[in-house]
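Predict the assembly for these two chains.
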Amino acid sequence: MTEIAATAAHSMSAAESAAARRLRKRYAAEWRFRAYGVAALIIAALFIVALLSDVVVKSVSAFTQTRVTLDVPVSAETIDPEGKRDPQTLLTADYTALLRDALREKFPTVTSRNDRRALNGLLSSGASEDLQKRVVADPALIGTTVKTTALLSDDADLFVKGRVTAIETEQGTGSATVSGMDGDVTIVSTNKDFADALASVKRSLASQASALLAEADRVADNARSTTGDEKTALDAKIAELRAQVAVLNARFAAAGAPESVDAEEPTTLVKINGGVVRATEISATEIKGTTMVPLTSADAAAAGTWKIETLAVPEASRRVSDQEAVFLSVLSDQGLIAKNFNWSFFSRGDSREPELAGVLGGLVGSLLTMFVTLVLSLPIGVLAAIYLEEFAPKNRWTEFVEVNINNLAAVPSIVFGLLGLAVFLNFFGMPRSAPIVGGLVIALMALPTIIIASRAAIRAVPPSIREAALGVGASHQQAVFHHVLPLAMPGIMTGTIIAMAHSLGETAPLIMIGMVAFVVDIPSGFTQAASVLPVQIFSWADLPEIAFQAKTAAAILVLLVFLFLMNAVAIVLRRRFERRW
Amino acid sequence: MSAQTATKVETATAVPRILGERAPKVTARNVDIYYGEKHAIKSLSVDIPDRAVSAFIGPSGCGKSTFLRSINRMNDTIPSCRVTGDIKVDNKDIYARDLDVVHLRARVGMVFQKPNPFPKSIYENVAYGPRIHGTASGKADMDDIVERSLRRASLWDEVKDRLNSPGTGLSGGQQQRLCIARAIAVNPEVILMDEPCSALDPIATARIEELIDELKQNYCIVIVTHSMQQAARVSQLTAFFHLGILVEVGDTDDIFTKPKDKRTQDYITGRFG
């Protein structure tokens, strides 16, 4: 009997422990499921943050522009030689020449053609716009000196923003003596002030050596599969490269030994006694170099009154020459260069000059296109959905239509672009690159999405509402338009927002109908040539100028903000609808 | 005259007394209703008296709601549904080709099983019917109709201070009375009620029943119910449906005290259903 009781107790406890195990398993499963969810969310959030921060960081420099402040004597001879103050003459006058003259005033010693060209190249081709506007608005300015700011070119702009090269500035700690005021000079410091500059040159030698070594290895790889003369030539080349590497390494190894500097090594500038000297030979305490801007005196400079600037990127690898860098540096030291918010990015159309390019053209093009899309696809889509859902007889024909609407939603957008090209442009002869055609094509793409979403929303309205309306003697149409449609509206709006958001980012079909054209003017109508934001981004991303990288990121940011705004408006509208009902 | 024709129907032989007192408002003769292949109502004939409450009882799926919904042609919304035979309201065939179904539904109002007020204000709920039918001439008239309808549905005192708040914010019983008010507002002659109390608690049910009792002074009311007590309490005529057949129809007192058919007896005594 005790045995029986024991077995019973035993089996009881076994059952209990099995139940406890099952319970633990269930809890573990639930915990795991939740952990997966949280992990998925975290990963998604990280990706979004990474994407957004990348775009934001890249775009920052596009939102500022650099301008140089100049006192420009507006000479009547250049602007209005006939003295008639004819607005047309004033509008077409050569203001750029005025700006160039004013800029040259800042560097009276610059005489060589190349240096002048470098100086002129600092200014953007659109730099004179402000001055032009002011003089046209107020011809009394002619003959006076006008203080104006001129836009810098994209390369100069990037240099000022520090995107071309990092610049290290060091104060001279010893007192420096100079051998002359112009031409080749030698600067000797009582301290080892040039040791850092020398070290950076040595580092550059090391990296040149490793690049050459890699090149030698590559050539050696190629040489292995060749024979005869070709092989001999390659072997000779390898030997030469290896010899160069050995020389460079030896120079690198000899720390403290003087080095000569050329365009392959970082540039070292010494600003002393009001002039600028570029180093051609460096040792720890002494620099030999050429003057870029003549010195004003040959006296010894006390500690702290002179400085050394090292441009980390060698001249050969950057688009801003040492001469241009010196000009900018001097202007900047005089406090004439200022960065301000780039409003013109939002008020200009496209341009081949990065510093002049803006998004307004694309933005307006997108707005016009979206407007056409919305006006067409929303009513047609919703009415089609109502008909199919509420009134259409359920037969094979409507089933066929339904299946094909779903199929249409999956058709690649480029196909719609080809359709638009063939039908709207070639058959109907509508204007190329026009928002009306873009809107038509995108409306075709948005329709299936809107129809499907609207049908789902209409189907989700409880039948009791329909019955209630019919029960008090409303006709079917009244029941649908008075009761079903308003209740389905939030769902319809959601579908429409999704469709519009997709449409806003649509690029491929618009390229097909010519909206990829380079359009400088801001479109003012539905039939004018226009581009849209995503296409603008696409074409900017393709351009070689480095400044367009930032512009591209900035345009992406504008597109995203546009999208968020659109969604926000839609959500507000939807809330209002929901509240009223 | 309907008394004579009714004798042709084998399932309902005797003429109920209530039909002697009140003229029949709705008459159905040899009605068959099909859902696709399914034969939901088989050869049904019945007379429904005016200004009285008629109750349809029977187990689930017996076709009583189907028949009720065919009286104002709500079955038209179901594509597979087909109705044959004659259903007449005031001696006019409601399935006649030239009859306007919207007009019919204005005359034959309906209250549904689940309260289904429009998601609009209380005022708008009641005013919707008169508005689409154009029965009100101006704002004052509409206010009057709304007040009258709400009073008749004995809801006025509870909602008169919040006519602009949403109808869906009321309690279940109030919502159902709002639906009754909405049905009354278009001034119907017949009110069909499809289990109007099945979603309500006993107190709300009692109020609706009271209301039905009052409304029968002016309207022909047909109610489908699963509660035999409710049928016994509110109706004067009771019809028992079983498997698509109208088994028995008669004065409520007679049906509940001396049913002629065994199936009726089994049902009301709770042996099946």
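Chain A touches chain B through 20 residues (CB under 8 Å). Chain A has a mean pLDDT of 88.
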